[in-house]
Model the fold of this input.
Amino acid sequence: MGRITKNKKASLEKLEKGKAYSLDEAAELVKEITFTKFDASVDIDVRLGVDPRKANQMVRGVVSLPHGTGKEVRVLALVTPDKTQEALDAGADYAGLDEYIEKIKGGWTDIDVVITMPPVMGKVGPLGRVLGPRGLMPNPKSGTVTMDISKAIGEVKQGKIDFKVDKFGIIHTSIGKVSFTSDKIRDNALEFVNTIVKLKPTAAKGTYIKSIYLSSTMSPGIQVEPKSITD
Done:
C-alpha cells in the first residue's frame, strides 16, 4: 500500500467520511483541500439513474456556464474562404478549410472544439474517423454546425460546453478552476446540474440524480447532497 502524502492526508482530514455536503459547503471545501502548485480544474461527476444503452435514455446536451470554465479553449473553424476572416475576428484560433482538413487527415488534433458550416459538412464528414474518437466531431445538436459562425465561436470561448452521459451512466466535466471564488464554482455547478435535470428522459424511472461529486484535478472527491441543488 502506497504512502499517503502530507497534502492528501490534510485533504482527507477536512472531509467527514460518508458525509454528503451541501453545494455551498462543497464549493468552499474543494478550494481548501487542493494543494497543487498550478491552477487545478474543478470537476463534477453526476451519476444518473438511466441506462445509456437504450436510445430513449441517452442524456446529452450543452450548457453555457455563467462564469466560464477558466480554460483557454482552442477553436478551429472549418469554413469557406468568405467566412475565414469573420471566424478569426470572432476569436477562432484557426480558420480555413482544405488546408486544415489535410492537417487533420495527417493526425493533427491540437484543438479543443471544431466549428463548421452545413455547406461544407460533405468535406468534414470523412474526418469523423479522426475527430470522433476525440470528441471533436462537429454536431448540429451541440451548435457546432451552424451558419452563425461568430455566435458559435463566442459561446464556446465564453464557457459553453457539450456533455454526454457515458456507458456507466455518469456525466463528467470541468466547471471551473480552483482560483474561482466558491460562489462562482457553486453557480457553475448549479447551472450544469439544473441543465441535466431539464434533460431527464421520460423513459427514466426511479431516482434520476443518484450522486454528485465535486473534486479538483488531484483532490479527493466531495460528495454533494443532490437535494441541495435540485430542490
